[in-house]
Amino acid sequence: RPAPPSPFLFARPAMRQRDLACHATADATTAPAPASTPDLTFYMKGSPEGKMLDCPFAHFAQLVLAHKGAPYTLVPTSPCTKPDWLLNDHEGKLPCLVTEDRATGARTVTTDSMAIAKYIDAELFPDVCPLAGAGYEEALQAVSPFFGAMAGFVKNNDPALDPEKEKALQEALDAVERRLQAQTGPYLCGETLTLADLSLVPKLYHAVIALRRFKNLDIYPFFLPRSEGLYVGESAEQLAARVRAAQSRPRLEEYMQAQFESKEFLDEQCFCAWEIVAQGWGKARGD
Q1: Alpha carbons 45 and 54: distance in angstroms, whole number
Q2: Are 271 and 53 contacting, i.e. CB atoms less than 8 angstroms apart?
Q3: Same fold, 17-28+132-285 and 31-124
Q4: Other CB atoms within 10 Å distance of the CB of residue 79
Q5: What is the spatial order of strands in the sheet that 73-77 belongs to?
């Protein structure tokens, strides 16, 4: 399946050889799912017309599926199109993964993105690109303040509170940088890609877009949409300023560069266009 065009133009330093080698290893471990795979149906946030909307938690689970090479049916679901069984038996929670055994017809329903990710990794495809590497839970804990701090800042509409909320965000980003600086490899757990990485990366993607769109703050300078939007009319001086800002967290910049350009991240079944992400955060702000 061809990937959509990357929204990240190649106007920045090349990846380190270490990162390239690690990506080659990761690609080698991503194999097609076994023939005995059950039928998978993934329900996620969608429009009434059935179009996929922004959800970093669904994106996390989809990245796990992509790294496993697992085929699945995607069902974007709005509040008015949720099936009765989801509403009655699972409180309408999304995302939701339904597995159905092809031989017996037995169904398993799993909600909550982390529960889905662990189920895919440990129960469905334990031998394909294992993602529960040593230390991943500690890594999750180390970077967990980031998303809440980012969301609190983006959704804040009181300018007087912005400095306090931005400070919390910057401290959370510094914690991510420290975690990466402490590793010998390119991931949150060193040389091994884990669930911690796949949970964090969609949240970083949302942050890059929402912070630039609503707070005029850049944490990654190379997000340059090809269509009109976030950087219309930007001068060379403004671009240079964004580059300098990102260089204050060099490992985080490298990390985002590598992950945002991976074939799994850009898989057309799970990649969410930046315009949709921006629109979603606009609604969250009440704009």
Answers
A1: 7
A2: no
A3: no
A4: 11
A5: 73-77, 39-45, 96-100, 107-111
pLDDT tens per residue across span 172-207: 999 999 999 999 999 999 999 999 999 999 999 999
Task: Give the pLDDT confidence score for residue 18 in this predicted structure.
Answer: 34
The reported pLDDT for the residue numbered 286 is 94
d(CA 128, CA 249): 32
Write the CB contacts of 48 (distance below 8 Å, at least 6 apart in sequence). 78, 80, 81
In the DSSP assignment, the letter for residue 219 is S
4-18 pLDDT tens trace: 445 554 333 333 333
pLDDT over threshold 60, residue 20: no
Q: How far apart are CA 113 and CA 62, in angstroms?
A: 9
The residue whose two tokens read 């995607």 is 74
pLDDT above 90 covers a percentage of the chain that reads: 67
Over 70: is that where the pLDDT of 54 sits? yes
- Say which CATH class 17-28+132-285 falls into: mainly alpha
Residue 112 structure tokens: 């909550």
Q: List all residues 6 or more positions away from 152 whose beta carbon is below 8 Å from its beta carbon.
A: 165, 168, 169
Catalytic residue, candidates 22, 55, 96, 270: 55
* 22 belongs to the catalytic site: no
Structural domain boundaries in the chain? 17-28+132-285, 31-124
Q: State both tokens at 43.
A: 């329900």
Q: Which CATH architecture has domain 31-124?
A: 3-Layer(aba) Sandwich (3.40)
